[in-house]
Design goal:
heterodimer, A: alpha/beta, Glutaconate Coenzyme A-transferase, 10-stranded mixed sheet, 3-stranded mixed sheet, 5 helices, 13 strands, B: alpha/beta, 7-stranded parallel sheet, 3-stranded antiparallel sheet, 6 helices, 26% strand, CoA-transferase activity (chain B), CoA_trans_fam_I (chain B)
């Protein structure tokens, strides 16, 4: 079975470490916040200028001046800080954020990522994505392995305009955990019940498959 | 007006000198911390041909979106747009030009503009459509892109409190691009919720020192919420 969105978030959460500053993109990455292991302190960075994002407010505490980068109303955790957009991107571009998780349309064997622009469709903009992929050392891309039409999103060369060049090393799809090493995808783990053959079939870019590919494990919280 | 007193009595006075074809930098992120009344004053004045530098372009009927209604904007420099149908229509018609700029690069362009730095190198955008036509240079084995600073004829800023000397503090995440825009305007106008006497704000807690600010005006704010999210009862 391919992973659900919640399971993908759970798998990404296994990469968190105590004391990490983390930027989570919109969509599946946002769900990662729900699976931070207990007894682990993680601080969420939101690129509109917030370090230490908390949960959604109540109807009583909602505040138009307190939003996240997805423009949702949020709260702060104890120990949070708020700053300007330039300060926020100094953190991101200066490599101070420990982990960045974001979605994509395509990733290729050279670590290129395309996530913002589909030609001939309305382009809304890259927001902070280009800064995040260029600035972060540790990035996890979350996306489905193939499109609804069955087209692979793990390519030898991205077909869409790039968000960043040579910056992706880790990809979690609904089928597999892969890493990018020396111009190839390496299959590290597969979703429970998903065969290596299915992953090979749905990966267009060069893929190295080790002799043993373990299934992902999920611990209930 | 005497000495360092920056307070003006009206929005009309606050925007004196704004002319057609000028460049206006605006603070705000989404609808959070936008100078909503200064934008409304630009609409009232009917100034046209504007280049507006702002992370977003408001929504239909609120924020910078209202400047599209009478086609006052010639060009937007933004990182993310298209939350408004009118924007999309004018873009597709060719009535509106848009220069999409990565969010961190946009912030740094304003910061650099205000700090007298004409251009800077960044890794952001290398190998992407953003890099087209731009100079690149290698530092320590990595390729960087040369991005030019931005200066505005006007900067329009939303603060929380200001004193009469134009020292400003922002409230929560309504800070965002505001202090950067404030530094990079030839004329910087700040609208605030409260004007306090000098000495009331702690000097160490000032976000925007008054040296950057030309005019301060007192307003009342709708503060519309773009995406209202609340905790569901458990």
């Amino acid at each position: 079975m391919s992973l659900t969105r919640e399971q993908m978030a759970q798998r990404v959460a296994q990469e968190l470490q105590d004391g990490f500053y983390v930027n989570l993109g919109i969509g599946i990455p946002t769900l990662v916040a729900n699976y931070v292991p207990k007894n682990m302190a993680v601080m969420l960075q939101s690129e509109n200028g917030l370090l230490g994002m908390g949960e959604f407010p109540t109807e009583e505490t909602i505040d138009a001046d307190m939003i996240n980068a997805g423009k949702q109303t949020v709260t702060t955790v104890k120990g949070a800080s708020i700053f300007s957009s330039a300060e926020s991107f100094a953190m991101i571009r200066g490599g101070h954020v420990d982990l960045t998780v974001l979605g994509a349309f395509e990733v290729d064997v050279n670590g290129n990522i395309a996530s913002w622009m589909i030609p001939n469709k309305l382009i809304k903009g890259m927001g902070g994505a280009m800064d995040l992929v260029a600035g972060a050392e540790n990035i996890i891309v979350t996306m489905t392995h193939a499109s609804k039409d069955g087209e692979s999103k793990l390519l030898s060369n991205c077909s869409l305009p790039l968000t960043g060049k040579g910056c992706i090393k880790k990809v979690l799809t609904d089928l597999a955990w892969l890493e990018i090493e020396n111009g190839t995808f390496v299959l590290k783990e597969r979703a429970p019940g998903v065969s290596v053959e299915e992953i090979i079939e749905k990966t267009q870019g060069k893929l190295i498959v080790p002799d043993h590919v373990p299934e992902m494990t999920f611990v209930s919280l | 007006m005497a000495g360092f007193d920056k307070v003006v009595a009206s929005y009309e006075e606050a925007m004196i000198g704004l002319e057609d074809d000028m460049t206006v930098l605006a603070g705000g992120f989404g609808l959070c911390g936008i100078p909503e009344n200064l934008i409304a004053e630009i609409k009232r004045k009917g100034t046209k041909g504007l280049t507006v530098v702002s992370n977003n372009c408001g929504v239909d009927g609120f924020g910078l979106g209202i400047l599209l209604e009478d086609k006052q904007v010639r060009k937007m420099v933004s990182s993310y747009v298209g939350e408004n149908a009118l924007f999309e229509k004018q873009l597709l018609n060719g009535e509106l030009e848009v220069e999409l700029t990565p969010q961190g690069t946009l912030a740094e362009k304003m910061r650099a503009g205000g700090a007298g730095i004409p251009a800077f190198y960044t890794a952001t955008g290398v190998g992407t459509p953003v890099a087209e036509g731009k100079e690149t240079k290698e530092f320590n084995g990595r390729e960087y892109l040369l991005e030019e600073a931005i200066i505005g004829d006007f900067a329009i800023v939303k603060g929380w409190k200001a004193d009469r000397y134009g020292n400003v503090i922002y409230r929560h995440t309504a800070q965002n691009f505001n202090p950067l825009a404030a530094t990079a305007g030839k004329i910087t106008v700040v609208e605030v919720e409260e004007i306090v006497e000098i000495g009331e704000l702690d000097p160490a807690h000032i976000h925007t020192p008054g040296i950057y600010v030309d005019r301060v005006v007192l307003g009342t704010f709708e503060k519309r919420i773009e995406k209202r999210t609340v905790k569901t009862a458990e």
